[in-house]
Amino acid sequence: MAYFDAGTPGQGAAPRMTGAPICTPSKTSFSEFGGKAVQYDTHAVIYYEGDPAKRLYELVKGSVMLYKLLPDGRRQVVEVLRPGDIFGLAGSNENDCTAETLTNAEIQEIDLKQVERSDALQRTLTRCLTNQMRVLHEHAVLLGRKSAVERVASFLMHLVPDRGGVGCVGPIDDSDDGFDLRLHMTRQEIADYLGLTIETVSRVVSDLKRRGVIRVDRADQIHLNKVCSLCQMTGMH
């Protein structure tokens, strides 16, 4: 889920082997099955909720968010995709959410009829979608049980390569455990993803800054002063 570009780790940051999508473009590119590459600008709508579901999509470059709108206009961002993720699989003849790019994006598109004819592609989809279901289960726990601080901390930690979660080896050097993140989501979009108000997100960010956990360099760039300190605030310890 690529909300930020991974920035520059501190000198002691350990290489990460966890958290990457199972479906990386080099392994699962729809181009191998006759897919078509399409380029999208930032904040372009790929499809709307209710549109006919005719294609599957694989994100090759960039970031895409999936969201649903309530009748009164409130929005819930249900997933933020990163390269290798597959989307567009609907349970009916209509798409059940809207897909919008957060950055310039390259996407492979494939007709559903081609999926029905390819056993190899169906096996690939099963593996990829199983992994994405695991990510959605983790997000359900975040929305249902975590506090506002834990939600924001979990959101930031998910973006730090090779840190947090099972198998995290921690920093090589405790004195140099910083990390830079570049933001591609507005605070309103983050709030809609975390099930919070924009005021609550801003209050938590200010609190993390006051406590010395993060440093806000610009509106679109945050520096994590000590990754381990942030990880301790995710509710997973």
Question: Could you give a quick summary of the protein structure above?
Answer:
With 237 residues, the protein is α+β, with helices and mostly antiparallel strands. The protein is built from 7 helices and 12 strands.
Describe this structure in words.
With 237 residues, this protein is α+β, with helices and mostly antiparallel strands. 31% of the residues lie in helices and 26% in strands. The protein has helices at residues 25-28, 112-117, 119-145, 148-157, 187-194, 198-210, 227-231; strands at 4-9, 36-40, 45-47, 55-61, 64-69, 75-81, 86-87, 98-101, 105-111, 179-183, 214-218, 221-224. The strands form three sheets. The chain has a four-stranded antiparallel beta sheet with strand order 1-10-12-11. A four-stranded antiparallel beta sheet has the order 2-9-4-7. The chain has a four-stranded antiparallel beta sheet with strand order 3-8-5-6. It is globular, with a radius of gyration of 18 Å. 37% of the residues are buried. Residues 1-22 have low confidence and may be disordered.
